[in-house]
Amino acid sequence: MDDGRLLVVCKDDSSLEVIDLEMSRAAGAVLASGFTPHEVVATRDGRRAYMPVYGDTGVGSAGSDGQRVDVVDLLTFQLVGAIRLPFPSRPHQSGLLPNGRVIVSTELDESVSVIDPRTLRVVARLPTGQAESHTFAVSVDGRRLVTANVGPGSVSVIDVPSRRLRGVVPVAGKVNRICLEPDGRLGYTADQGSPRIAVIDAQLIEQVASIELPSIGFGTAVTSGGSHLVVALRTASEIAVVDLRSREVVHRVATPDHPQAIVLHPDGVRAYSACDAAACVVEVDIRAGRLLRRMETGRNPDGIAWCPRPTPASKD
């Protein structure tokens, strides 16, 4: 299997750093068009990335309001286009639907925007019904989308084909990050006021359980088979692995300071997280529960994404 690359958004550098995992070092970097990008996603062939430019402040705080998503060529490490959002946005997270369309959280609009990658224009706006819809997760089939609404402490459930908001589930005083099981039934978001994960049934539109954690969680990811949940424990500087059958923590891995988002390698064994206070990315073996390596990055790394190493387009 191609070891691939990690795309790392370094907020204080306003840049995208591309790490070659086979070499354990940067293959290139690209400056964003503005201040500040937070998150990134790559196309499935690893040739392009979409990096929203959020603004100069944190969620819910006064500051500039970004209205642009940078398009990055991952072969040449250059900006090659821009998605210009024609409404107040603060675009934060980007993702892809199975049909190749780009989706971006546009939280000032209380929506997730759907973008045609050929025209770079918004073709739909999926309503979240809540402020600060900062992050989202989408089912493997692309039919269901959930958002973590930070300040309201809620989760919105959206039917993508009909563009309909199915409901909003209150779960905490404040939440951050969210992930979905591959089939799109259960979602997991971290309560920012207590050490627990709220478990949302996206079919029933209700919270059905809580998972107790050793400390307050942040980024989460579910393994492809749906058996385990990987959680960044930001303040404890650990990554926890939860057995979803027992809903018990089975591994705790010490990391450098403040792990953020969690990204899983397609091999099903490795997980990655950017540790913003330590300016690095870590690789963890989630089966053995141990730290494998640390890779240095630029300043204040935050959003990360895995992608395959790209191959040049054929000239035929």
Automatic annotation (TrEMBL):
<dbReference type="InterPro" id="IPR051200">
    <property type="entry name" value="Host-pathogen_enzymatic-act"/>
</dbReference>
<protein>
    <submittedName>
        <fullName>DNA-binding beta-propeller fold protein YncE</fullName>
    </submittedName>
</protein>
<keyword id="KW-0238">DNA-binding</keyword>
<dbReference type="GO" id="GO:0003677">
    <property type="term" value="F:DNA binding"/>
</dbReference>
<dbReference type="InterPro" id="IPR015943">
    <property type="entry name" value="WD40/YVTN_repeat-like_dom_sf"/>
</dbReference>
<dbReference type="InterPro" id="IPR011048">
    <property type="entry name" value="Haem_d1_sf"/>
</dbReference>
